[in-house]
Design goal:
52% of the residues lie in helices and 2% in strands. The protein has 323 residues and is mainly α. The protein has a two-stranded antiparallel ribbon.
Length: 323
């Protein structure tokens, strides 16, 4: 197969990942499906969403850093150990190995645009589960107890929606094959039911788990951005542009709509989910209001917000929020 510039395409090393999907931007592939297409009604222009994404500035997104919250309780250690086990499994399945500075890895571990997209699609198809499960269970709990939820439900459902938008964006760049679909189906089925039962037992542990999971997501997107900026993903550097669905959702300004820019937006979202879930895990799950949905008496003091203004990688402590 020839590449876009007419030269022979670089062959990837044998890996299961090669059978997961095809890239939809290849000029010889016209069978790409439009997942969740807009309605085909004559009098319908667009479908609006209930959640408008906050506007991130380039400076804010570039300030996002890797962060880790130290485990201090048994609940934290359970959450952290689970995330590390899942990360190891995903790296093994996708044939990924991180290259340390100055280290040379075998060719089979070289990351290409195809491999990165496979990781992104699989990651985002799972990442949209926790918020939906948590929001659903808290919604049912509110109905049973006939009490207010104080803003948790909306935040969790919006998080699930945001992760689904990540997935829909990547589906504009990659079309999953049957193998990828089976992997997603199996993983989602197992993860949904496991997380459902775990949230019934310990919501605090589940939010800490998601916080640690989002730490790994920030690492993943940071490494992908570094690969692009180092020139190791030439197709994205030369030809990659963010799909229209991404431009509209993140309100991406003209001139800042490359794949690299897209990954900066998504990484910022993951950093925000990291902060939110670590913060929620620090609160009283039954009594405290959602600190991202309240109006503070003293707005001049730093407090949690939906944007990146006061981003804290390890989350906000309860004493910092409700003094």
């Amino acid at each position: 197969m020839a590449s876009r510039c007419g030269k022979p395409a670089k062959l990837e090393s044998p890996s299961l990942i090669s059978y997961w999907f095809t890239t939809s931007q290849h000029p010889y592939q016209h069978h790409h499906k439009d997942y969740f297409p807009p309605p085909g009604k004559l009098n319908v222009e667009t479908v609006d969403t209930a959640w408008n994404h906050p506007v991130y500035t380039e400076a804010q997104m570039r300030r996002v850093q890797l962060a880790h919250r130290n485990a201090t309780t048994w609940s934290d250690w359970v959450a952290l150990a689970t995330v590390r086990s899942l990360r190891w499994g995903m790296d093994w399945i996708t044939g990924y190995r991180h290259r340390e500075p100055g280290q040379r890895l075998p060719a089979r571990f070289a990351m290409t645009e195809r491999k990165w997209l496979a990781r992104f699609v699989f990651l985002e198809s799972i990442a949209g589960v926790p918020g939906m499960v948590g929001g659903m269970l808290r919604h049912l709990h509110s109905l049973r107890r006939m009490k207010r939820d104080n803003g948790w439900i909306e935040m969790l459902l919006e998080e699930a929606f945001n992760e689904r938008m990540h997935l829909l964006t990547f589906l504009k760049l990659a079309e999953p094959k049957w193998f990828m679909r089976l992997m997603v189906l199996g993983a989602q089925g197992v993860f949904f039911n496991t997380f459902f039962l775990a949230y019934l037992v310990s919501p605090r542990t589940c939010h800490r788990f998601v916080g640690y999971l989002e730490e790994e997501a920030v690492i993943t997107y940071t490494r992908a951005i570094e690969e692009i900026e180092a020139g190791n993903l030439p197709d994205w550097n030369k030809n990659g542009t963010a799909p229209d669905i991404a431009v509209q959702y993140w309100k991406m300004p003209a001139g800042h709509r490359s794949i690299r820019d897209l990954l900066y937006y998504i990484r910022a979202d993951e950093a925000k989910h990291r902060e939110v879930n670590h913060t929620l895990s620090n609160l009283d799950q039954a009594a405290d209001p959602n600190p991202y949905q309240v109006t503070y008496r003293d707005p001049s003091r730093p407090h949690p917000s939906k944007g990146l203004e006061n981003l804290k990688g390890a989350g906000w402590e309860k004493e910092e929020v409700f003094k």
